[in-house]
Design brief:
Strands 1, 2, 3, 4, 5, 6, 8, 11 and 13 form a nine-stranded antiparallel beta sheet that branches. Strands 7-12-9-10 form a four-stranded antiparallel beta sheet, with no helix packed on it. Helix 1 (34-59) runs antiparallel to helix 2 and helix 2 (71-84) packs parallel to helix 5. The chain has helices at 34-59, 71-84, 98-111, 149-154, 156-174, 178-182, 234-237; strands spanning 4-5, 12-13, 89-92, 115-123, 126-136, 187-198, 207-210, 219-224, 246-252, 258-263, 270-274, 278-281, 289-299. Strand 4 (115-123) and strand 5 (126-136) form a beta hairpin. Helices cover 29% and strands 27% of the residues. The longest helix has 26 residues, at 34-59. By secondary structure, it is α+β, with helices and mostly antiparallel strands.
Length: 304
């Protein structure tokens, strides 16, 4: 299955083949000047508001709406601030409605089957990873050959929503680059999608400092999922006060070293991560912590 989305809500394309030589994007971020930001921000905010209003209207047909109102406007505003600080990640609090995520969780528990995968050279010093369930895998069956299709179907609407939000974030983050100017209707493809359950058990507490896809993906999204209140009490499964969250090493501090930034994430928070940004899922010492992770490739727009 190939999953390609453009800039309109839930617009998807299926292609039989993809170009082998995809133009790669520069890692250098050119932060807009204050004057450029002032000139463009009103236009960008208005466009984001129109897109978000349309998305809210469409998603309102379901029992639970998915995206909090105003998320795209917030992405526009916050990306400009991040770029001025030369940072290439963004965390939006409560971007996804908790009630919607709660509605998925009982079926998630019924279908979640962790898969053991072995990484050559290891990931964050872990060669054997046992706490994730893979909904979509990379071409050639990497890291495993048996994706969990029931969970893929269950999370289909949320994945489409994440595609749409990622496109909005990526356009803002890379809007000054030639690739975006030459491909205003660029596509994104989900390379790999998985759900991870962290526990206090040895080897399951965290995913320490790493870059996603060994730096070979163009960006990623992490969605914090609810605390499990279905298999046991919330008190038993909660990790509040016992670690968790995300840490990034991005931008520069006063001494010129990468700035360390910690976020205490909770259900519905969404992190957007640019190519080869160092980060980690912080350890927990109690409870369970769940996260949905998506790796993306950015592609030129489809020929008419």
């Amino acid at each position: 299955r190939l999953h390609l989305v453009g800039t309109t809500v839930k617009q998807s394309y299926v292609a039989m083949t993809l170009q082998e030589n995809i133009p790669r994007l520069s890692n250098n971020i050119v932060a807009p000047t204050k004057r450029q930001s002032e000139i463009s921000i009103e236009k960008e905010m208005n466009q984001a508001k129109e897109e978000n209003d349309q998305y809210s209207k469409n998603s309102g047909e379901s029992k639970f709406s998915i995206v909090r109102s105003g998320v795209k406007e917030e992405i526009t505003k916050q990306v400009i601030r991040k770029k001025l600080s030369k940072q290439r990640h963004l965390l939006i609090k409560e971007a996804i409605h908790k009630e919607y995520l709660d509605s998925l969780f009982p079926s998630l528990l019924n279908n979640f089957k962790p898969q053991t995968v072995v990484y050559n050279g290891g990931i964050a010093k872990i060669k054997e990873w046992k706490i994730s369930c893979y909904l979509e895998v990379m071409q050639g069956g990497i890291p495993c050959t048996n994706p969990n299709y029931p969970l893929l179907d269950l999370f289909g609407d949320l994945l489409s929503t994440c595609n749409d939000l990622f496109v909005s974030w990526y356009r803002q983050q890379h809007g000054s680059k030639a690739f975006i100017r030459e491909n205003p209707n660029f596509q994104v493809k989900r390379l790999m999608t998985f759900i991870t359950r962290y526990t206090p058990a040895p080897g399951e507490q965290a995913l320490l400092k790493h870059v996603d896809g060994a730096g070979k993906v163009d960006g990623s999204v992490v969605v914090a999922l609810p605390i499990d209140r279905w298999s046991a009490s919330e008190e038993e499964n909660s990790f509040d006060g016992h670690g968790g969250g995300l840490t990034f090493w991005d931008g520069k501090d006063g001494s010129g070293k990468p700035q360390e930034l910690h976020y205490d994430t909770r259900a519905g928070d969404v992190a957007f991560i640019d190519r080869a940004v160092w980060h980690q899922a912080d350890p927990i010492t109690k409870g369970t912590r769940w996260a949905l992770v998506i790796f993306y490739s950015v592609l030129p727009e489809l020929a008419p």
